[in-house]
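Complex record, two chains
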Amino acid sequence: MDISLYGDDSKALVHFDPRTKLFIFLACGVTSMYTYSGLYILLFTGAVCAVLALSGKPWLALKAFFAFSVALYIKEAVDHTGSSAPAVVLIVSVLTTLILYSLPTILSIVLIVQTTRISQFLSALSAMHLPVNAVIPIAMLFRFIPTVQDEWNGIRKAMAFRGISVNFSSVLRHPWRTIEYVLVPLLFSTIGVMEELAAAALARGMDIDVKRSSYEEVRLHAADYIVMSIFAALASAIVILVSSKGAAGI
Amino acid sequence: MIRFKNVSFHYGGEQGTGEGVDNIDLTIGTGEVVVLCGPSGCGKTTLTRLINGLAPHFYPGELEGEVWVDSLCVSKASLTEISRLVGSVFQNPKSQFFNTDTTGELVFGCENFGLERDEIKRRLDKTVGDMRLDALLGRNIFELSGGEKQQIACGSVYTARPEVFVLDEPSSNLDKKAITRLHETIRRIKESGKTIVISEHRLYYLMDLADRFVYLDDGYIVRSFVPDELKKLPDTELASLGLRCIDLHSLMRNPLIGEIPHGGKPVLETVDLSCNRGSSQILDIDRMSFPANSIIAMIGDNGCGKSTLTESLCGVIPSGGSIAFDGVYLTDKERAKRSFLVMQDVNRQLFSDSVIEEVMLNASVSRERAEQVLDSLGLGEQLDRHPASLSGGQKQRVAIASAVCAGKEILFYDEPTSGLDRGGMERFAAILRRMQDTVTSVIITHDPELILQCCTHILHVENGRILGFYPLNDEGAARMRWYFLSESEESTSKRREKLGMFGKVLQYAGQWKKYTYIAAALMIVGALCSAVPYLGVYTLIDRVLAGEPVNLSAAMPAVVMVLVFGVLYAITYTVGLQFSHSAAYHTLENLRISLQEKLEKQPLGNVQDLGTGAVKKLFGDDIESIELMLAHVIPEGVANLAVPAVILLVLIAVDWQMALLTVILLGFGFSASRQMYTVGMDRMGSYFAASKRLNNTIIEYVDGMEVVRVFNREGESGKHFEESVNGYRDFALAWYKVCWPWMALYGSLFSNVVLYSLPFGALMVVMGYMPLGRYVLALCLSFAIGPMLMRTLALIGAIPQVNFKIQALEKTLDRPPLKCGAAEFEGTDHSVRFKEVRFAYKSDEVLKGISFTAPEGKMTALVGESGSGKSTIARLLSHYYDVSAGEITIGGQSLRDMTLDALNREVAYVSQELFLFNKSILENIRVGNPDASDEEVREAAKRAQCDDFILRLPQGYDTPAGLAGSRLSGGQRQRIAFARVLLKDAPIIVLDEATAFIDPENEQKMNEAIADIISNKTVLVIAHKLSSIVSADKIIVLRKGKIAAEGTHEELLGTSEDYRRLWAASEESRGWVLKGGKNT
């Protein structure tokens, strides 16, 4: 599987500020803790998908929204059919509920990761007056995941030559040896890369005390304020509605 | 200014990089370029770390003395302070970028320093301009090659503009073009007055830049050279110092390289190898075979497909075509078992916790044998050490040992000597030579020194194709050296496209894309309409079930509904098909036009290489296959998938349990079809390769039928034909064999959805979970899904084929176009000059450094045996091909700078064959100058001595060429060609064997025509019959692609043995012709 961590906003219609995207993530996190249903959840997810589409991922947004609607539809259909085998009902409704409540949050993470470049992200974080000590680890994390992916690709090829296979049966039969074969080269090569990376970053003034500037313009525009207020309104509406009517209210 | 004041440094902890440095006293002035050199582990890198402060601030250790950069004491200041003053480029390209996008990385330093945005932008623009990084901007760094990453690292430091630049082995991963660019970058930095310190093993590219070479050994500064002193050192002394060569020109082949293996059974053979990554084809290799026990150097620019080729051959990435080891075709897995790749980052391939365990892992060898192998590689002492604690070179040897112990037959190495000093490189070469008897080695390398130390063959890869495969004898060495010496710094980096299959086809549709969308929308409506009648049927059945009588009036609405939607379905579907076909054929038109434009820009030679058969197939069949995709697969497929989805949704509302069952069944069906697609795609390459071979054989068979019959070779030719047919049959059968179980599976699942849901629903009804009416509705809906899915099925099978064809089509035309400029002819006169021109046709180098001048208004003759390169020179002058190296100029202007039109106005090329268009003779002559009037054409014909025989034709000048063609003799056709040239009146004339068809009755006239053509022109004549060029102003004698002698007839008779032989042979045949009285 190829999880691309390369943030590309070249196709975006509206360039949202990373802070807006973080805000959406926050809103998704908050609302997912409440049980609500029907129109509100559709509206909320629709809004997330709209932002995703505007940020240059229209097809992904469309697919996600479609999947979400189908899940919602199935849940409604199951809820409204009276008689059926209880075990099947349980399985289906657990699955759909899981999708319904995790999808917005997942989408907001995708929004941050796939449409924001590291430099934009760093600028936004420092614009939020986060200390350098907090910014660097976050940025490092962004950089670390593709490194592991890259190394793992190479190691898998190396394994093919040595007749080592990592699959379900080998994990079952020799769990420790398999873990060793994966971890030993992975650790040695990633540690090497990360150490050199840290040296390179320091040598180029990564932890300098001056306020970072940014080549990319990172500024909150009108669109950012509009989107943020929409999400604030939606999230607070959901929270208020749920608390006033009780968990099973809507 | 950098000052080391009696500095000693020793690493604390576990820094495995050298032992540190002692008693360093060194002053480097501002603006100076200093190269630190010496064997591995001598302390070069430590010295650079002392300047950029990483030692002792990042790599802790014991430091005595002080290092100053300008007025900053680096050993005391913090890294942040140093980072403003000193910029560093490190050795390992993959671990020195911090962003994932290139632009962000280039400005990273500036952002850290808090520079204004405008200033950053200015600097970025300057960096991009100076270092030619345009092609690399705004890209994902993870998809760049090592060399490209290194360029970005240099660019990033360049943008930050520190006072001191520290480069630690910057060239170790670079190809020769990137080294040229690096050289250029260093020159620019030097010009701007900055101080540069470079630690480096490769010295040759720094000779003209460095002010001083500081030689370290074992942590001490031992000597210091200025470049001239270093240049004077003999190679033996360089070797004893452990320094690499300082001038690539002086590199010689190591005499220890044994005899070059040739013939025999090839150890590796490929036929029609192709490899697709993402949505484009990377490799396109017809045939390739490696002789056994050879050591092959794979060279080529960064990103040309060397790694992809290697991994395809090893079977770790899927590829199309057939690959055989030792004459047996093997699958990917079998090849991975019998080959081995020593990776550049060897850390990835060490799995165990001791050396001896590592080499015995999964290898059926005894411990004695393993120890013996390790001993022979100089690892006898390290048996129980942890591989991670070894040095880079030792790790590499452990990997080699593990491959040898596992009995691998072919070993591949990915840039094994990057970052090795001379001793390390020579030891590595010695290991390869020692192993030559047992294994075949293939080395991806940018290191000419290594190649000349041990390799027996060169495999030159360019843009996924084999540019040449030649033995490394003395001539091969010269050719290889030329590749590394030729000056070129253009970047060929291509952005990797990430387009899905549909996106790829749709991009060709351009403005017609919306028609495809409209078609899809209409067809979705149509498919929906086709589902409605089932609802009508349901209402009727429902009525019956409810016990109501079904009479005509009650049934009427349902019947009408069925009818109306039936008609609607027909209409929307037809209109949809109209739209989709309109889009499809317009797209085909666009595609053929763009293809033709691309073809026109290709070197003529390339087009001829492709062959008429292939071009015809390209324009016809391959493009036609896209029609299927655009007109049917996209709109119909979308509709036929979308509607079942909608029906399923309705079904969920009716009864979600039935829907669930249906979904599960369809899910199985789709996974089966997906499975078929994957296995089918894997074999598709081989299958198409076989079909291509069959096509070519058929063409060859038909074309050659005459020769075959005349020489009675039916048996042989027929056998070849039969082999191809059998091969095609085998591959096709193999393809169907892997596909048919899946086809059968999904076929039965899709078409019989009802079969499974029928009993299930009945059970539900019986148990009282579902009313009967709903059951009937659910069944009706299921019936509606079936036909649509079956229609989709027919299309699914075609998708991999179409996809493959499109990729192949794109690959065929991504050959580099002819290099043409935009300038008109601006030369000072019409003298032709060849400067060190080299030209290779596939694996054969035809011209090997040709230099001569053909003066204006004079006749220059080229003579030599056939195959000596005479005609190639003529074709190069007409710009049929681009030269491999060197330059051709007319009046001082390079051919590459002018447009083809401009060149065509200056040069007229008369070849041995004349092509007559299917028009009248008059029009055929007018081809020479389309603006000429009929009178001028006739005049030219008269001057070319054509008038009399043309008038004898049935309709004179208006005779169609087809009719006249068969009546014209060779000499007459030749004279028509002369007429064209006379009409064109170009100042430079190239006559390629123009007198080949001379016969006594023609001779007089031919000579007159030629005399007329060449008067006052710059003339280049290629002749077999030397008598015709005796009077030439200059005669150039060619032998095997080189100039053997030059001079006038008399001079050459005296000085050149070659010319005397040619002359004698020519005279002899002339005598024979006269006696025989007729032409041969």
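Note: Chain A touches chain B through 70 residues (CB under 8 Å).
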